[in-house]
Task: structure prediction
Amino acid sequence: MPEPTPTVVTVRAPAKINLHLGVGPVRPDGFHPLATAYQAISLCSSVSASPSTDWSVTCTPGEGIDVAAVPLDDSNLALRAARLLAEHAGVTTPVTLHIDKGIPVAGGLAGGSADGAAALLACDTLWELDTPRSTLLDLAGQLGSDVPFGLVGGSAAGHGRGEVVTPLTDTGRYDWVVLTDPVGMSTPAVYAEFDVLHDGLVVPDPEIPSALVDALAAGDARALAGSVGNDLQPASLRLRPELAEPLQAGLDATALAALVSGSGPTCLFLCEDADHAARVADAVSSYGRAVVASGPVEGATVL
Ligand code: ATP
Result:
């Protein structure tokens, strides 16, 4: 058998935050319709793909990141992405993937989804498929609700389960403190708590506030601060009441806004500029690992 071509393609993909996460009533299939405004921030992982004799994945943690919960079997999202694209395109040569994890795991930052998006693009490039963008986005949506946004990046609206992504005009650059917690939270558990909290109540169809869309178009961080929100936050706080403390500490330290990221437990603090973010990071650092990041950044990119 001929030796596989010794090539490697590396793709970087960003973490996502939800500037606004509107959650609608649970559907019969168990999913909740979402109306969310995503932003890609400068916390990134990268995935390298190279030809191999077997399908496999390895993972190296970035500083301060625990990868113990990252599966290294067929359930790994990067590996699932590679296999899905191979099946779609009729590729039979396996790849080995290596993930350099710069996004905390199970933190509400869509780290697994970023790996999936990166693997799709890496394999598409490695196999020289030139898959149409719309097909890659469709495959991404089959892998998970947040995977298409990992390809698109920037600031964008997400509808459906979050997989229907439309770019939003954003003229700003925003400085965030991202406070991560070593103990992740299960997204399904947070949605289940959301259902408990809304039992018997009429949950309206979710919408992205027009004030938020206007704030992004104007690139106005203060206006953005007035329109961020997360419908999952009460459920996350019920499961993790102690998160209220860092959120308040960030506001006491003059953060423009403080909110839980997605299903949590990561907390986000919007700041005026990088210096302000450094001060806010200092003020909340006793509660977890506080890193400064900026957004929006581009989606999955071949390095
Ligand atoms: P969600 O997208 O469900 O909101 P999250 O952003 O909170 O998740 P992730 O870092 O994506 O968190 O991890 C969620 C779970 O996905 C992990 O606990 C892990 O079991 C599984 N998983 C599968 N593949 C990966 C991967 N490549 N990296 C991280 N987690 C993965």
